Amino acid sequence: MDRIFRLNDAVPQDPAVAEWMHNHPGELGTLAQTYFDRVRACGPDVCELMHDGCPTACVGDVALAYVNAFTHHANLGFFRGGELQDPARLLEGSGKLMRHVKLKPGVPLNSDAVLALIQQAYRNVKALK
């Protein structure tokens, strides 16, 4: 059985997450904010905190997803992404559990498929609680 990754300091709205978003303007910051907001909207039990320098969402205290911005892309990562069904083949990574979607400015993205991954990840993590 896999251990559940818990982050005990998650809160409904973390000012440090808001600061990170404020400090990442431009297209990459907008992509990160857009998809982090979609994760936040999954349910009233979604909390957040900064973890390893990234805005991170949890279902209660169970790690769900994170965003990060790099030089040429942003990532939407799922802590249990290796368990997700991904018919659009958007997930990247080869670890046991972690997977991410690369978000690139100006590059078309199947946002419906990304939203389906977010919803699926939320349901899966909620079932672990």
Chain-averaged pLDDT: 95
Radius of gyration, in angstroms, nearest whole number = 14 Å
**Proportion of residues in extended strands:** 15-25%
Give the terminus-to-terminus CA distance: 14 Å
Helical fraction: 25-40%
| Structure annotation, total helices | 3
Structural class computed from helices and strand pairing: alpha+beta
Low-confidence stretches: none
What best-fitting shape do the alpha-carbon axes yield?
globular
For the biggest sheet, the summary is:
5 strands, antiparallel
SSE topology string: HHEEEEEH
Largest beta sheet: strand ordering: 1-2-3-4-5
Strand tally, please? Answer: 5
Quick structural gist:
The protein has 129 residues and is α+β, with helices and mostly antiparallel strands. The protein has 3 helices and 5 strands; from the N terminus they run ααβββββα.
Q: How would you characterize this protein structure?
A:
The protein has 3 helices and 5 strands, in the order ααβββββα. The chain has helices at 15-22, 26-40, 111-128; strands at residues 46-51, 54-59, 62-69, 74-78, 99-103. Helices cover 32% and strands 23% of the residues.
